[in-house]
Amino acid sequence: MSEQDIVQLTLREIFQINGYHDADLMTQRNFEHISDEIEKKSGIFISGTTIRRLSKGAFNRSPQIATLNAIANYFDFNTWQEYKAAFIRKRTEATIEVQKITRIAESGETGVLKKQRSRWGLLKWTSLLLVAVFICGYYLYPRKRAVKNITKASFSARKTTDNDLPNSVVFNYNIDEVTADSFFIQQSWDKNRKVRIYKNKYALTDIYYEPGYHIAKLIANDSIIKATVVNIPTDRWFFYANENKRAYRTEYIKTKDFLNDGSLSITKEDLNRNKIDIDQEKIFLYSYFPSRHEVSSDNFTLKARVRMKEVRNNLCPYLAIEVYGQHYVMLIKSTPKGCAHQAYIRFGEREINGKETDLSSIAYDVTQWTDVELTVRNKQAAIKIDGRDAFTTSYQETLKLITGLSFISNGLCEVDRVTLTGADGKVFCNENFDTQGVAVAKAYRR
Predict the structure, then answer these.
(1) Does pTM top 0.70 for this prediction?
(2) Less Cβ crowding at N or C end of the chain, within 10 Å?
(3) How far apart (Å, rounded) are the C-alpha atoms in residues 6 and 86?
(4) Architecture of the domain defined by 237-437
């Protein structure tokens, strides 16, 4: 069996694991989904186009070693060579077992059995076929070992600078006595920010491009066995753009004049000065992460007057307000009514999307000034749009204390005012963004 055959068979197995049983019917979006799944397991990106080409055997030379290693990592092998050796060995063992079953079956085809073949022979061969299929599956695709000795693992993080951005973080870990097939460190909530680690190594240095209260996780197989906090506050408003969330191409926006006509905002000129390509689809974020955390996520009121200005022609412009907690987030993403299928709400563990739920009540013309109010009392959330009751829901998992606040859009947000206060009167943020507020609403400058 050639290496080309092994690559094809392995990718077809990954397709089936993810529910795609006929590769010929897969769309480009399906291949992109497989790309995401491989990257989650390996930390290595393979484009959907490359996966499509490899799965069809459309390659003359062996793929790059990083590509092969990523495919092997999906099945929890360290390298492609290690995976290939196991694949060939298990396939050989499976073939021997099937041949053995066949010989036993053929030797039994005598006497009475041969005369009654029409009835009992069918049952016998069906049973033998099922056994052979089971053996092939068992030998070709080894099962994961159970995770053991979790308490013997250690995990900690240390920032290399105070609160600068970007910020390199050194993770120290020890997994030598833990039993599992694979280990990873995941930077934060985003599963794409996951790096594979190995026994007999005790440090990993990774980089954070965005501020926030991040929970880094030590993962064995698919289980989180340890977690540690990486807190990178700003204590001021911080502006940046993401070209692609998965690739995390973060671009900082440095500006001196972030207060314009009494609102928190940046301009196209700011983007040009920072050499940000406005012809590409971007996500723009205005974020505030204070060092102190005092307001409970289960009891607070947020009021904001907002709108967005389009940078480029977006068919569905949107504006989102996100509240970050020590666990989970809260997010209200609003769109024009014609794009309400893209609206989205999240409170703790509860996610509600506009494709499966009618969220037209939180839709509005995001290019016009709009008052948005969010009130949370004992995990009961109520949203008002321009004073109108728009949506209510509840959640179970607490975010604990509030750690940050962001305004997010595929255009440039303008924030006329924003207040976030706890039910006990503690203030998280209180800004009018007039000329008197400059001392409070500082912008991040690098």
Answers:
(1) no
(2) C
(3) 11
(4) Sandwich (2.60)
